[in-house]
Amino acid sequence: MHILKTLLAQVKEYKKDAIATPLFMLLEVAMELLIPLLMASIIDDGVNAGNMNHIYKIGFFMVLAALVGLFAGLMGGKYGASASTGFAKNLRKAMFENIQTFSFENIDKFSTAGLVTRLTTDVTNLQNAFQMVLRMGMRAPASMIVAMIMSFYISPKLASVYLVAVVVLAVVFFILIRVVKAIFEVVFKKYDDLNASVQENISGIRVVKAYVREDYERDKFQKASGNIYKMLLKAERVLALNAPILMGTAYVCILLISWMGAKMIVTDQFTTGELMSMLTYCMTILMNLMMFSAVFVMITMSMANAERVAEVINEKATIVNPENPVMDVADGSISFDHVNFSYKKSAEEFVLSDINLDIKSGETIGVIGGTGSAKTTLVNLVSRLYDVTDGSVSVGGVDVKKYDLEVLRNQVSVVLQKNVLFSGTIYENLRWGDENATDEECQRACELACADEFISRFPDGYNTYIEQGGSNVSGGQRQRLCIARALLKKPKVLILDDSTSAVDTATDAKIRRAFREEIPGTTKIIIAQRISSVQDADRIVVMEDGKINGVGTHQELLENNEIYRDVYESQTGAGSGDFDEKEGE
Q: pTM for this one?
């Protein structure tokens, strides 16, 4: 019931169309079921009685009923299409808008492929089901009920044949639907696997070709696609029984009614026109029962879709704005006070344990540590991409939970480990940092990030079109564009999460020098694997297994921290291959 309420709330401005559709379908049913009675009157009171005036009169009403029915059918189709497509549009909008509010914790709950499937396949199925319910969900049962009433009005004895047939078919269809429902509940989850396979293959096509793994990827796709094929084939085989069972029942009913009706005509208990009406109502009842079963099948198919769509719409963001949020970040000072953090509340161990760190506004802090030491997790807490489990993180002397999220994230600019550019020109990508930035400001930010060097070599310069994901620029170029984009925000805190890993050490040194000279008041946190990238920082934080192992200057850590000393010696010793080190200094 909760799922239904969630979905129907998205009908919104299309309520009138949703109401008009079944009303027009009822009018169409009324006209269709009036025609057999008029036809019986023409045969019995017109043809058999030789009354041409009666034939013309009733014929006129038959034509009028057919035209009204045609108009009602057209209008039902028009409003049904409008309501269903509008419903689908609102579902996608509601999901997409809610996804934009998700924290990283919410996003981790859903796979990218799963969200794409929900926004496309699941919504399309719900759209089709909604249209069918509006049109056939009202039309089929109304037509059956009225046809049954008309049949009992003409001949209760013959109508009882319909009643028995309807009950038998209803039981058979119920059994078939139960079987099919179990299949469809599983099959739509398999679409996620298929989409994941396609998405992974396309986004990583260069790696696939570099390692000559086309055959492996092809087999993986065929397996995912084959699973869906087998399950849908199984469902279709069950549904295929609908038609022969229905038609078999229809033929039996026609034979029984014809045989019983003929005997009644011979004994003057029945007329030829009434028999024709009964046969027409027989087909009407049985065909509408088939439509009704199709509606149930569609609803059954869409139940799994409805649950998946409603799950996204009803997902509550774990990080939201507080009441009366703080709307100004005073400065770039940062304080970690006994911070513990784990991605799951049920986790037995913390990813970050008892972190205590005070950073002054304008300081340059280097963060170094092995893979899995929680360096990225540490900085994600500063811009409140995740909330701490215990303790507190403060920026500008205020707990980050008290800030307006937009205000905080505009002042804490993060260049994430996975750099993402969007389809559009370089200017358009840069203005993600500041949509009102002038061309001169964009170019200045690129100079600081050392991106102007390669942009000037492009034929179109800053109007060069960037493909989706930045696939037409190198890793180092992509990193520098992302740094420039972050600088345009003019933040009080700038976090570079291993964002110069694809840049040579000489360029890395130029970027750090530009930061030091051009934005001295901005707090800079630089996560790096190369010691050369952080050794001139005011202080360096050494992370190990989610804990701070040491804090100090480059020289202090060389003297007092074994981990830092070992890393430094391994990177600067003979044969390290750091050929740009001297130039970088």
A: 0.69
